[in-house]
Amino acid sequence: MPTPKQTEKLAAAAAAGRNAPTASTPGPAEAMPAEYWQAVLDDAATDAGPPGPSIRMQRLSDIQRHVLRVSCRRCQRTVEIQKADAVRFYGAQTVWKDVGKRMLDDTCQQRTGRYEEDGCWPSYDAS
Questions:
Q1: What is the arithmetic mean of pLDDT over 6-22?
Q2: What are the DSSP E strand ranges found in the chain?
Q3: Residue 101 and residue 123: Cα distance in Å, rounded?
Q4: CA-CA-CA-CA torsion sign (11, 12, 13, 15)
Q5: pTM
Q6: Which end of the chain is more exposed for a tag (fewer CB within 10 A), N or C?
Q7: Domain boundaries, the chain
C-alpha cells in the first residue's frame, strides 16, 4: 500500500500526463497520414507470398515435386497421388487444381443434395 506522499506523487504525475498534448487520431473525414499508407503497402507485400504461380495453378508437367496432396477443409480428408500416376491418369498438361478437385469429388463424404453445398473444399499441397 503506498504512503500518502507516494499517492500524491502518483496523482501529480497522472494529472501532468492528462494535461500533456496527445497525438490526435484522424477522424473519418480526415486524410490518413502517409506513414499509415506506407505500413499498409509494406504489409500487403509480405502477405503476397513467393513470386510465381501457386502450386494449384501449375500444370502437372511443371510441378517439381513427386507426391501431390490435396486435403478437404470441410471433412479433413487428405488424398495423395504420385506425380507419375497423376500424369498417366489425367495427362501432363492438366492443371493440378482440376486433378485435386476431381480426386476429392470422386470420394466425397459430404453430400447434402444441394449443388452449392455438395463436395469438398480443397486445399492444395505438394510434397
A1: 73
A2: 67-72, 78-82, 122-126
A3: 9
A4: positive
A5: 0.51
A6: N
A7: 55-111+118-126
